[in-house]
Amino acid sequence: MTTRTILAFDFGTKSIGSAIGQEVTGTANPLKAFKAKDGIPNWDDIEKTIKEWQPDLIVVGLPTDLHGKDLESITPRAKKFANRLHGRFGLPVELQDERLSTTEARADLFSMGGYKALSKGNVDCQSAVVILESWFETQWG
């Protein structure tokens, strides 16, 4: 069992959620949502988070349809975001299927705090938690 720290992102064109997790526990916690303009975040903010948490690996959610096929409008952009993370920060980046992560995130948040917990930033960060925890499950499966 390794003890790597993993940073995850839920890519979106207006907001990018983030979560941090430890491979040894297989659990993740929400961090913050980064505002994005047409899918482009403030890279300085991303860099601050990377410097603070010093992850060994980054996982980016890969949006697909229910059959696992690429979504024409968003899948290539998520891949581009992942490539830019790798290019800018030199860290290994893996993609993780994120089908239904937003639905699961909303259900998790609602059970914790009702409608008040369902703000856009909370949902995006909880989606990053779901993505990272599903990545952990695929590593151990």
Automatic annotation (TrEMBL):
It is found in: Cytoplasm. Its main location: cytoplasm. GO terms for biological process: rRNA 5'-end processing. CDD domains: YqgF (cd16964). Pfam families: RuvX. GO terms for molecular function: hydrolase activity, acting on ester bonds; nuclease activity. The keyword S-adenosyl-L-methionine does not apply. The keyword Nuclease applies. Its EC number is 3.1.-.-. Keywords: Cytoplasm, Hydrolase, Nuclease, Ribosome biogenesis. GO terms for cellular component: cytosol. Residues 4-105 form the YqgF/RNase H-like domain. It comes from the Bacteria. Could be a nuclease involved in processing of the 5'-end of pre-16S rRNA. Belongs to the YqgF HJR family. This is Putative pre-16S rRNA nuclease. It comes from Vibrio qingdaonensis.
